[in-house]
Amino acid sequence: MVQKRGPSALDRLLRLFADVRAGESGTVLLLALNLFLILTAYYCIKPVREALIGQWPELKAYMSAGIALLLLGAVPLYGVLANRMPRRQLINTVTLFFAACLGLFFIVFQMGVPGVVQGIVFFLWIGVFNMMVVAQLWSFANDIYTRDEGERLFPIVMFGASFGAIAGSFISGGMIGWAGVYPPMLLTAALLAVSLVATNHVDARERRRSEADLPDSLTTGAMPAASQEIPLDEVRKALTGEIPVEDVTRTLTGEIKIEDVRRALDEDREPAQPPEDARAKLEEAAQELDLAGAENPFTMVLRCRYLLMIALLMLFLNWVNTTGEYVLTSVVSINAGEAVAAGLAGDLSEREYIGSFWASFFGVVNVLALVLQLFVVSRVIKYLGVGIALVILPLISLGAYAMIAVIPLLAVVRWGKTAENATDYSLQNTVRNVLFLPCTREQKYKAKQAIDTFFVRAGDVLQAVVIFVGTTFLAMQARHFAVLNVILVLIWLVLAVAIGREYRRIVKSGRPPCVEP
Q1: Same domain, yes or no: 329 and 473
Q2: Measured between alpha carbons, how far is residue 314 from residues 96, 318, 431, 499 in Å?
Q3: Contacts for 364 with CB less than 8 Å, ≥ 6 apart
Q4: Which of 91, 162, 376, 508 is most buried, with most CB under 10 Å away?
Q5: pLDDT tens for residues 286-307?
Q6: 69 is in which domain, residue-wise?
Q7: How many CB atoms lie within 10 A of CB 341?
Q8: What Cα–Cα distance (Å) separates residue 271 from each residue in 191, 236, 243, 279?
Q9: Cα separation, 402 vs 390, whole angstroms
Q10: Domain boundary among 287, 313, 335
């Protein structure tokens, strides 16, 4: 008798932070490492972006719109690749493309390219890169884990992002000082290449664990990343003789629906003995199929109520958050001028006072987010559920902006934004990825890419338009933008409640969203 392996020492250690079960620590730590490397890579070149565009700050106002326009083309192109490539090939291709771009920038930017061109090109490129690569990794994690596994383990995966943001900021700050502006590009390219080692190892490990019994053509190593839904449970039953192979092959080719097979089995069929050539028959049927999804990522989002609600939630979340950043920036600027004029800033200039404030602010936010990620997030999802987890951040934001609207003092704005950002970077970022666990593979790779890139950037664009109109024509101040945010948060809160209910309904039904039975 084979004894079931118990939890390892590493499994038990990780149980301090999440519900990790026997044998799960290896993959979840590799995914966390992967996300750590990607976020470290991004934060290594984020200061490079600021250095290249810093002399033309007025251009930043137009960059969000430019990035959104680029994503209108990049997301459908990604969808085409996902229709044709298995997930490992897709991830390798996209990641190596971005790494190669960095090598090209390193060479070309030092060949006399005008500074303003460097700033615009790199700002637009990094705006696409950081969102697409992170969304792609979360699509991969959603593809690997079941809903139950993802709800339990995503908090540990997300820890890699929290720690990577801190590590990348620390590395880049020192590196630019002694190496210059361009070398961090090469470091980022190297980190992306290393992340692929982890990705490929996880992919091979998980296919051995969960797909060894399947015909080759029906594994994730062969099927396109954005493949149509295949009744793999029935394939396995045919291989063991629980249902006739012919029923499954006819299901794969579309002659009958799997529901008809299940109904017939319930009514009048006895389990069949698997023929010796069951695997060969299933392999032959699978090879005749066109498994690739055909739907445009944006069309997929717009036609599915569940996905559209998630997209709108991300839009309003980002709109609120970036408007809040503007409120904090404006209040800090006013406070700095007053402190220097009154002699309360010590020997600091106004610019140094502002820089000191932001360094302290980001430090507190990052540490608080890390603590929440390690000790709070997994417990909220486990004991309160995804629906409650979704409404926590909008409730915090509602309270924060209501206070700011009444008392727009620096201390109130600072700690309101600290609570909002720390919760956003930890709990909200985790639970938003959990929402895709019950989705189809096609939705995970294509719709998620559209939502996590374009719709997030659309929130930036709306914020920029509102700030421009509010400050140019309406003489709006911090208090007024806080009132606007209260209204936006109420809409966000309604969306969060509706998504939580729909998530529970989808989980209970056992069927992916917007998929016909």
Answers
A1: yes
A2: 28, 6, 12, 12
A3: 418
A4: 162
A5: 555 555 567 899 999 999 999 9
A6: 19-225
A7: 10
A8: 52, 13, 6, 17
A9: 20
A10: 287
CA atoms within 13 A on the CB side of 280: 3
Supply the CATH number for residue 386's domain. Answer: 1.20.1250.20
118 and 257: one domain? no
Contact criterion met (CB below 8 Å) for 137 and 67: no
The residue among 54 and 503 whose pLDDT is bigger is 503
Taking the CA atoms of residue 461, residue 465, residue 467 and residue 472 in that order, the dihedral angle to the nearest 10 degrees is 160
CATH number at residue 42: 1.20.1250
Q: What percent of the chain has pLDDT over 90?
A: 58
Q: Mapping DSSP to helix (H, G, I), strand (E, B) and coil, where does residue 292 land? A: strand
Residue 235 lies in a domain: yes
- Rounded CA separation 471/461 (Å): 15
Instruction: Based on the fold, state whether residues 279 and 362 are members of the same structural domain.
Output: no
**Which residue did the predictor score with more confidence, 171 or 435?**
435
373 lies in the same domain as 420: yes
Alpha helix ranges (H) inside 376-476: 377-383, 385-406, 410-423, 429-434, 441-442, 448-450, 456-472
Backbone angles phi, psi at 223, to 5 degrees: -70, 150
Q: What Cα–Cα distance (Å) separates residue 210 from each residue in 203, 357, 405?
A: 11, 50, 53
Q: Cβ–Cβ contacts within 10 Å for residue 463, how many? A: 22
Give per-residue pLDDT as tens, 190-248: 999 999 999 999 999 999 988 776 777 777 887 888 876 665 566 566 556 566 656 55
**Is 4 part of any domain?**
no
Q: Are residues 203 and 54 in the same domain?
A: yes
**Judgement on whether residues 481 and 410 belong to the same structural domain of the protein:** yes
Sequence-separated (6 or more) residues with CB below 8 Å from residue 277: none
Residues 30 and 164 in one domain: yes
Any domain includes 10: no
Asked if 301 and 307 touch (Cβ cutoff 8 Å), the reply is: yes
Under the banding of pLDDT at 50, 70 and 90, the label for residue 279 is low
Same-domain pairing of 66 and 201: yes
For residue 234, which of 208, 252, 256 has the smallest C-alpha distance? 252
Question: Is the Cβ–Cβ distance between 410 and 53 less than 8 Å?
Answer: no
User: Residue 80 pLDDT > 90, yes or no?
Assistant: yes
Show the tokens assigned to 75.
Answer: 């997301």
Amino acid letter, residue 13: L
- Domain assignment of residue 79, yes or no: yes
Using pLDDT thresholds of 50, 70 and 90, give the confidence band for residue 48: confident
Phi, psi values for residue 227, rounded to 5°: -80, 160
Kindly state the tokens that stand for 225.
Answer: 């990343």
Domain count within the chain: 3
The two tokens of residue 335 are 């406070």
